Amino acid sequence: MEPTIEARFRAFHTKDTLQIQVLVRDNNLCLFDTPEKAMNGDSVHLILQQRNPDGTVKQRAATVNVVAVQCDGKPLLVWRAWNAIKTIFYEKSRLHFQDLGNDWYLYTINLDAAEMSLDLSPGSMIGASVTVNNHSGFARDGFLSWGGGSDARLFNCLKIE
């Protein structure tokens, strides 16, 4: 079976913002009209967790779940557990979604450090997982992942320099 999506990402930061850009090639963009449904369509899911400077798990560090979706013509950043009744919208963090043409899409995710409970000072380490979800329009086609999905023990680390 040939892959139906391709993706790559990069990260930048200021003292107040972590920006993650995810470039996706998808020849069948499938968007849903509500945030509850949109998470099952084409989307980017980030899970972040502050770490100790050596990358080990920091005691009592919050784990942040962010789903970036283009929904009903609007870019949204939301948090929603798999079985949650309510979707929570982030207030300060933002998504900029761009259709670049030729089946390429760019998700620029600007995460407010305070809202995400992240320390972005030099030397800080952030455990991270980036998952690009793919939907055919009929069913979920699969996903691409960096950092072990939702299992914090498998997260890769972003080092803030």
Describe the overall structure.
This protein is about 0% helix and about 50% strand. The strands form two sheets. Strands 3, 4, 5, 6, 9, 10 and 11 form a seven-stranded antiparallel beta sheet that branches. Strands 1-2-8-7 form a four-stranded antiparallel beta sheet, with no helix packed on it. The chain has one helix at about 35-40; strands at about 5-15, 15-25, 45-50, 65-70, 75-80, 90, 95-100, 105-110, 125-135, 140-145, 155-160. By secondary structure, the protein is mainly β. The protein contains one helix and eleven strands. Strand 5 and strand 6 (about 90) form a beta hairpin. It has a single domain (about 5-160), classed as Immunoglobulin-like (Sandwich), CATH 2.60.40. The model has no long low-confidence stretch (mean pLDDT about 90).
Descriptors:
11 strands, mainly beta, 2% helix, four-stranded antiparallel β-sheet, 161 residues, 52% strand, Immunoglobulin-like, single chain
The helix/strand class is mainly beta
Number of strands: 11
Q: How do the SSEs run, as a string of H and E?
A: EEHEEEEEEEEE
What spatial form do the alpha-carbon principal axes imply?
Answer: globular
Look up the CATH topology: Immunoglobulin-like
Q: Do you know the CATH architecture? A: Sandwich
Count of runs of 4 or more consecutive helical residues: 1
The share of residues in helices is under 10%
The number of domains: 1
Strand content: over 45%
> Spans with pLDDT under 50 lasting ≥5 residues?
none
Give the integer mean of the pLDDT values: 88
Could you give a short account of the major beta sheet?
7 strands, antiparallel
CATH class: Mainly Beta
Kindly report how far apart the N and C termini lie: 40 Å
Determine Rg (CA atoms, Å). Answer: 15 Å
